[in-house]
């Protein structure tokens, strides 16, 4: 009969110990990236509800719809990227483009956007762009080491 007794303590003799150590080290390296991507989720949620919190949904319904779609998309992308940050390098570019769209959308979508709508979109878009650049930079620096 096989010896099925469990030894408590050290798992150094486990056949997969080195693989588990490497996987755990990779996970810890991308921890900061996941934190930045979680900020993308928050920015996306804010972008989605910004038309109603800043009160421009009635005056600029097209901009409100644009912000809702982009905000939900950002939140979903941020969620996906925070779940697998080591694979999110390509999606950072998409997030960067969405942040740029948030910045320019008040002038593209609306004829005469109000100050609140412009400030809300520009600040949120700039934050999203910053988050995407920081996450991309962190991922690139982790790949070099």
From TrEMBL:
InterPro entries recorded for this chain? Answer: SPW
Keyword Membrane in annotation: yes
Pfam families linked to this entry: SPW (PF03779)
Instruction: Please verify whether the record's keywords include Kinase.
Output: no
Q: Which residues form the SPW repeat-containing integral membrane domain?
A: 39-133
- Which sequence ranges are marked TM in the entry? 33-52, 64-84, 91-110, 122-140
Q: Which UniProt keywords apply?
A: Membrane, Transmembrane, Transmembrane helix
The protein in question is named SPW repeat protein
């Amino acid at each position: 009969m096989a010896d099925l007794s469990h030894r408590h303590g050290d798992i150094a003799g486990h056949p997969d110990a080195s693989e588990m150590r490497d996987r755990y080290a990779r996970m810890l390296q991308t921890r900061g990236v996941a934190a930045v991507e979680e900020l993308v989720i928050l920015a996306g949620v804010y972008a989605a509800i910004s038309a109603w919190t800043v009160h421009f949904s009635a005056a600029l319904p097209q901009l409100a719809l644009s912000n809702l779609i982009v905000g939900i998309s950002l939140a979903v992308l941020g969620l996906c990227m925070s779940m697998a940050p080591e694979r999110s390098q390509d999606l950072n570019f998409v997030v960067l483009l969405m942040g740029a769209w948030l910045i320019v959308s008040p002038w593209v979508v609306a004829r005469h956007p109000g100050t609140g709508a412009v400030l809300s979109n520009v600040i949120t878009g700039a934050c999203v762009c910053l988050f995407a650049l920081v996450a991309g930079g962190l991922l690139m620096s982790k790949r070099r080491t």
